[in-house]
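seq as requested:
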Amino acid sequence: MAWLVLVAAGLLEIGWAIGLKHTAGFTRLLPTMLTLLSMVASIALLGLALKTLPLGTAYAIWTGIGALGTVVIGILFFGEDASPPRLLCVALILIGLVGLKVTSPH
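C-alpha cells:
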C-alpha cells in the first residue's frame, strides 16, 4: 500500500510542477491555488509512505516520478525537445527508479 501512496505522491508532484507553469508567477489565482493544493497533498502522501518505506528510496522515487513525468508531459504537450540524448537521460531515470524499487526491502 505504501508504494501506491508513493506513486500517487509522485503523480501529484507532476501536477504541481506543471501547475507552476500556469500560475504566471503566482499571479493567477485558480492555477496558484490548485498548484499549492497539489504541493501539500504530494508532500502529505510522501510523509505517509515514509511511515513504511526507507527515506532515501522513497524520496528518490518521489522526485524521479516527478522529474520523469514532467519531462514526458513537457515533450508531449509543451513542445519540448525530444532528442535522442534527452530521451536516453529520461530512460536512465526510469531505469534508476525501477532499480530502486526492485532492490528495496519493502
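The chain has a mean pLDDT of 94.
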